[in-house]
Amino acid sequence: MAAQDIPGTGQQAGGPTHRSTDIPLDERRRMRHESRTSQTYKAFLKYLRDVGQFESEQAAQQAAFSVLCVLEQRLFGEEDNDMEAQLPHKLRELLVRCDRHEAGPPPHKFGRAEMLAMVSTDLGVEAENAEPIVRAVFSAIQAQISEGESNDIAGELPTDLRDLWARAT
């Protein structure tokens, strides 16, 4: 009896059931990891665009970068590391001091007005437009981390920033 092609597979009936590939296993794993990382990041940006009503993915990404940079300047101790551990890999890359702040002072205490002013300056938007941006990014971050971690971050923030963080959800 002759082997027949299985439609849509390129294999013959009774042939091998595993995929034959010239790509080494480690490379295939790396590619799958990058694909999942990219998908998670894209989902974060889509959520952020929907919540923040950003015009483009690039605008959402710039907002995330700005707010995460400022938030990183406000968190002390291990809290930034704890939050970072729960974020998708591509977001972890954003949770570092941006180039503009890298040479600046270490994390320091500041409140809502200073945070909004820093984001406003960084994004080139009016001060009154910075708050919805911060709220949208905070909401997207909270969608990525556990409730316990969200509570830990809230505990490190002054009352006026805690209110902004808490009302983001």
From TrEMBL:
Pfam families associated with the record: DUF2267
Ranges where the record places region Disordered: 1-36
Listed InterPro entries: DUF2267, DUF2267_sf
Top-level division of the source organism's lineage: Bacteria
Biased composition (Basic and acidic residues): 19-29
The protein's name in its UniProt record: DUF2267 domain-containing protein
Organism lineage string: Bacteria, Pseudomonadati, Myxococcota, Myxococcia, Myxococcales
